[in-house]
Amino acid sequence: MVVSIGDTFLAVDWGTTNRRVFVIEQGRVVRTARDGQGVTSVDDFPASVAALRAEHGDLPMLLAGMVGSNIGWRPAPYVSAPAGIAELAAGLLRIDARTAIVPGVSVDHPADVMRGEEVQVLGAVEAGLVPRDALVVQPGTHCKWVELAGGRITGFTTAMTGELFALLRTHGLLAAQLGGEVTPGDAFRAGVEEGRKRDLAASLFGIRAAKLLGQRDDADAAAFASGLLIGGDAAARLAKSRHDAAYILADPVLGGLYVAAVEYLGGTAYLIDSHAAFTAGIIAIGNHS
Amino acid sequence: MVVSIGDTFLAVDWGTTNRRVFVIEQGRVVRTARDGQGVTSVDDFPASVAALRAEHGDLPMLLAGMVGSNIGWRPAPYVSAPAGIAELAAGLLRIDARTAIVPGVSVDHPADVMRGEEVQVLGAVEAGLVPRDALVVQPGTHCKWVELAGGRITGFTTAMTGELFALLRTHGLLAAQLGGEVTPGDAFRAGVEEGRKRDLAASLFGIRAAKLLGQRDDADAAAFASGLLIGGDAAARLAKSRHDAAYILADPVLGGLYVAAVEYLGGTAYLIDSHAAFTAGIIAIGNHS
């Protein structure tokens, strides 16, 4: 059974809570649709896929994201880095002759995984948005820092930066202090400087102590904490990377914080509009399969 | 108004949720009592103190702990380090001629505070449990690492190690993996080794990735996470300290984890039974006031 996708197909970026469908004809996106049918709200994947074909056209389909995880339709094994478009295409999980799931990418030591981000990162290269040799950042709940060499993913690190910030903001000692706005100003930069120490558990208690000693207003505490977390993450990654420039795939708000942190730490940062990246990646995979 | 305490008085170790009363006669503890009247469950402190005197004797009183915080009776200002018994005695917050609250201790750069721990740490010196020049550790929700020189607290660092572990165990991505037992075995030591990298946000995601890649059983994940947090904390503190021996004031279970981490990192660790430390400290303060 060989999956043949080609240049005319339905691509689905199928996440945990949402999905987006792209109708691709002759290598170009002609229509998109978005709905709330993420993998956690779908029980019958064959029926769901049939419904998509009924709505958008009876075409081959390429599915990416959490649909290929153990909470999705079927687990698509990870492809080991280094991995580019060709390796993803070769590693497709074939459901039937016209339907396939894009694999995630893994590294073994230290253990790390991605699922969904790989299409966007490699698509950004395909679209000419980032160089073939680069450090690419995808901020978020679990921030990915991806090393690209020769247009392939050669390694990456995931940091729970966004999740830790959300936990601290919602639960525990510091929650009451962290209600303020986060902007890349002085308090954020002071947090990035503190983050350089890479001593997170102690630096976090310092937020409490600074309040008790009257050293920082709580209006600035959230920005400081964000800077601390993002700064610690960025400092660790820049120390390890061959690159001192980071290409940041994100919206301007969150992306702007990463730009500020990388620049404060002496690196160069480019904020990349990532809207075209997923489709460029999935079209390239379709062409290779 | 001068507070005179002397060697016969009531000492109260008055925390957030519990308090312990020590009846001290001629410098010796003759009776103790414990109840659930922590500061968060007391509205009328004068009445509560009067009731303690009615029950245990109409004596001078020294109160320590959260009773002197902004959620307690009245905020007792912090004494700046370096601080020993004499500085705490000189900094007592005098409520009336027979009642005083022991101040906390602060350091300014980087900001840090303690309130309650100072009596135990300095009492451990008074009791001969730890040397006058030493690194003393009080593990817990907010772990204190205290530098002693000449029998005085010269500096300290608080790490939110225990709180972070509790947050991760209860909320978020890793919670489902972290239900296992924590013992100082191989998985704990592997966590300490990972903690050396001082890259917490990334190391935490590695716990998830190791599961997805089949590299570690979830039965070991909690011990690994505990080792990661304690190891990162201990590595940062040992790197900064003049000492390579740590005196750990804790129960054998939690204290045993810190012993294992410090020893794995090449330091020497002594587990100290801290029961006598608080009373030795508060008796010394009474003698000085």
TrEMBL record, chains A, B:
This protein's name: 2-dehydro-3-deoxygalactonokinase
Gene3D superfamilies (alphabetical): 2-keto-3-deoxy-galactonokinase, C-terminal domain, 2-keto-3-deoxy-galactonokinase, substrate binding domain
InterPro entries: DGOK (IPR007729), DGOK_C (IPR042257), DGOK_N (IPR042258)
Organism superkingdom: Bacteria
